[in-house]
């Protein structure tokens, strides 16, 4: 298998799923024009609500979501697989939603799903106060990596980035690419985003693809941006920008890079990471 070009997309989702679908359709066209063989979109691409109550009112099952259906049609029309973060309802609790990521294959079929395990509860002095656990149901399982034409992909979402155990588990299960679709806040993004992404790539010797929300979504939420693709040596191969002006909705953008599994195998063979499980339990 030779190198494969993939695209990472960046947008400013709002509470309008119709608007967000149009933004994603624009990113799909850009990815096709760039020769990408897959497109990776951010966490919560379908919508970002002002409140938990608004989110619960907006959420729809996948089979009834015009946002998901629109992406399925586009994936099939362009023969472009799409990895995208969405919301799903919690049947047993109408006040909560699921924060998930799905893989839509080139036929438009949903072939993989992962529900966010680690939820973002934070109160940063002078910064954001967010309690995701109040309105999002936590996931309970690390999903095995799934096969694509360019390698085995392991899914995580945003705050999962801070917990290396999940990426190490995915690597042990055969992952060659690990994804972090995100909506990082500006203060935490400035402090930790690139450092954590590079660390996850280096310690797993995997490609890391991190599609990020960017800009002001509403009066309460601003996202950091800086979507990235990083190679197994920790080198940033592609990166988009961040906020342009506070209050401005940024133009949807993509950037691309090549996934080269031969290079990955070179890194792994030249610096094998063999954990001493006789000394400490494997995480």
Automatic annotation (TrEMBL):
<dbReference type="InterPro" id="IPR003010">
    <property type="entry name" value="C-N_Hydrolase"/>
</dbReference>
<dbReference type="GO" id="GO:0005737">
    <property type="term" value="C:cytoplasm"/>
</dbReference>
<feature type="domain" description="CN hydrolase">
    <location>
        <begin position="4"/>
        <end position="261"/>
    </location>
</feature>
<comment type="similarity">
    <text>Belongs to the carbon-nitrogen hydrolase superfamily. NIT1/NIT2 family.</text>
</comment>
<dbReference type="InterPro" id="IPR045254">
    <property type="entry name" value="Nit1/2_C-N_Hydrolase"/>
</dbReference>
<keyword id="KW-0378">Hydrolase</keyword>
<keyword id="KW-0963">Cytoplasm</keyword>
<dbReference type="Pfam" id="PF00795">
    <property type="entry name" value="CN_hydrolase"/>
</dbReference>
<protein>
    <submittedName>
        <fullName>Carbon-nitrogen hydrolase</fullName>
    </submittedName>
</protein>
<dbReference type="InterPro" id="IPR036526">
    <property type="entry name" value="C-N_Hydrolase_sf"/>
</dbReference>
<dbReference type="GO" id="GO:0016811">
    <property type="term" value="F:hydrolase activity, acting on carbon-nitrogen (but not peptide) bonds, in linear amides"/>
</dbReference>
